[in-house]
Fold this protein.
Amino acid sequence: MASKTLTSANCTFYLTVENLYTTPRKLEGYGADNIFSTDAVDLAETVMGADGVLHAGKIFVETPQEFQLMPDSNGCTIMENWVQAQETAREVYQASATFTIPSIGKKYTCTNGFLVRAPKFPTAGKILQAMPFSIKWGSVTVEDV
């Protein structure tokens, strides 16, 4: 087995959006300090009974993911087109994605996703800043590659 590293520069991300991108589009042009991120999610709901016995049950929650894309990138254009298409249609479009992180030998498949947060234009400082886009996924699975 090859050794693992913490390299993120060789990650790949492919996105499909219903009614817009029916063939996968590769997102490129990430922010310098943050390609994508997610928050931890709750997996169970617990309750302590009056007799001191802990009970638990599986709960279903969405998985949030945020992308940082540079304003001059193809990735940013893909996301802006998604925003504009939804605005024009006055509807939301469902997405799916796959991304691989070769350095740790993992592939993630995301389904039932919705774009929930996007900037209308970039922040301008000394140079234009990375733009954050947020998707919530209904399902995320992982496999070794």
